[in-house]
Amino acid sequence: MELTVLGQPAEQATIEAEGGCSSSGCGSDSDSLSHLPDHIREKVHNHPCYSEEAHHHYARMHVAVAPACNIQCHYCNRKYDCANESRPGVVSELLSPDDAVKKVMAVAAEIPQMTVLGIAGPGDPLANPERTFETFQQLTEKAPDIKLCVSTNGLALPEQVEELSKHNIDHVTITINTVDPEIGAQIYPWVYWNNRRIKGVKGARILIEQQQKGLKMLTDRGILVKVNSVMIPGVNDKHLEEVSRVVKDNGAFLHNVMPLIAEAEHGTFYGVMGQRGPTHDELQALQDACAGDMNMMRHCRQCRADAVGLLGEDRGDEFTMDKVEVMDIDYEAAMERRKQVQDDIEKQRKMKQAGLVALEGLSVQKKELRPVLMAVATSGGGIINEHFGHAKEFLIYEANATDVRFISHRKVELYCGGGDTCGDGESVLDQIIKTLSGCEAVLCSKIGYEPWDLLEAAGIMPNGEHAMEDIEQAVAAVYAEMAENGALEKPAPTKQIAAQAGA
Ligand code: CLF
Ligand code: SF4
Questions:
Q1: CATH number at residue 462
Q2: What mean pLDDT comes out for the span 45-57?
């Protein structure tokens, strides 16, 4: 597949993207970005959202400095954070730019692998330009080693591109749910444009034109753009392949198709109207369909507008302003520690460059072997290091005779809270098994007898033999073992639980 990145100085950089930082290949070796030109590679190498492999090692944080918004989305309730980039139903602590900078310095000192600061809400960052740019300005001076990132609905983007490019911002996300104003009118009841509220198709058309114009202007300046799209079944699901093609043509680097989350208790239009979100299978099928033409992001966790930590973990509670105020931070010392920790991570990543050893012997049988989904429990670092009962989410990998690829993550409720309650979670366990539907194995560092038996009975083989091993190597080894035992010549067992848990 060929990916064209527009707007590199003096030329359009054409990239052979073997899945880029998203689909096949990425994650199966730590140098999967090696096909990219150096200046792009440098920008994505330690960005946990732009590189799937980096998200095992590097953290991001958001600061919620931008309260206002200039459009209305049917999946958003203004009581909560911007649902274009954040998990719906979550409220963040709104910060002034000065407090935001203090908080970033504190997190940078305490979490040395935090490489990216994003502004993603709680409203639209570019509808709050003074607060957003003041925060970026101060951070450029005080913490120049941190990459700056921003997420927007795109309405105000063209007018802000010049300012964005002055602030050393390498990464911009635009949420683009449609390129068709008729579909847009079903998602956006109005936009606020030139001091007027403009409704329906007319408003949606303005938004779409501004988004595409802003996208081109950014890529013309060499700024990497990721496009987020919310998949809304029956509204834009059939149309998102076209969106993927259009944004790629206009220079987008990466496409992140996220599931709609619409709950009645969030009070959104879609929630109240009973609009459903996609199932895991529907989401994956759409991501696969778009991937024919575009680099897809599959590891998005729909973070909070004040998220802190590795994707999938949230350490925000450790850095509330009352705690930050009393922290004693020596940023110079912290910078040294950050460098040391990040150098160590890079050494680890280099060591991972071996191919998938276990698959090498399978080439003869290649055609007959069917692909298998496996769930993995990890707390980061790209290794299997989480107890089944402590996992809050599972990463889903697909193995075949030649490759292992990351597919998605599935959140679950904590089965084992430890102490006296541990083991009482029968119904939670049932839910987890339902969530892992479609997987044929679950790899974790340890697992108790009860979940072992129930998983096995549901046709999901528990496996604790690869604790502390590299995820892709372990998945490949389990796949090779299944091949050897003849399990892959048979069709996949019927889905363990017919009713798929929603995404
Ligand atoms: Fe934040 Fe977004 Fe930048 Fe990442 S998140 S502003 S690009 S630093 Fe990442 Fe979070 Fe998904 Fe966003 S996992 S919601 S894609
Ligand atoms: Fe809500 Fe974000 Fe949409 Fe604004 S852009 S209405 S904050 S989801």
A1: 3.30.420.130
A2: 91
Domain encompassing residue 311: 55-323
Return the SS3 of 314: coil
Ligand 2 first shell, C-beta below 6 A = 69, 71-73, 76, 82-84, 123-124, 153
Instruction: Give, for 272, the enclosing helix (H) or strand (E).
Output: helix 269-273
134 shares its domain with 211: yes
For β-strands 114-119 and 59-62, DSSP reports them as parallel
Q: Indicate the number of domains in the chain.
A: 2
Ligand nearest to the CA of 259: 1
Distance 314 CA to ligand 2 centre (A): 22
385 pLDDT above the threshold of 50: yes
In this structure, is residue 328 part of a structural domain? Answer: no
Task: Please check whether residues 484 and 418 belong to one and the same domain.
Answer: yes
Q: What share of the chain is helix, strand, coil (3-state, %, to 5)?
A: 40, 20, 40
304 and 362 part of one domain:
no
End position of a domain, from candidates 296, 323, 350: 323
Answer yes or no: do 115 and 242 share one domain: yes
490-503 residue pLDDT tens: 667 654 443 343 33
Atom of ligand 2 nearest to the CA of 77: 1
Is residue 453 very low, low, confident or very high in pLDDT (cuts 50, 70, 90)? very high
Q: Say what the pLDDT of residue 23 is.
A: 33
pLDDT in tens, 238-292: 999 999 999 999 999 999 999 999 888 888 999 999 999 999 889 999 999 999 7
Residue 192 forms part of a structural domain: yes
Task: Judge if 229 and 373 occupy the same domain.
Answer: no
Q: Using a 6 Å CB cutoff, which residues line ligand 1?
A: 49, 60, 62, 85, 116, 118, 120, 149, 151, 171, 173, 226, 256, 300-303, 311
Can you tell me whether residue 409 is helix, strand or coil? Answer: strand
Residue at a domain's end among 323, 349, 381: 323
CA distances from 126 to 155, 158, 166, 231, 438 (A): 8, 10, 14, 23, 41
Q: Which tens digit of pLDDT belongs to each residue from 143-157?
A: 888 999 999 999 999
**Smallest CA separation from ligand 1 atom 11, residue:** 300
* Residues 241 and 116 reside in one and the same domain: yes
**Integer CA distances (angstroms), 454 to 130, 228, 356, 413, 461, in order:** 55, 37, 30, 16, 10
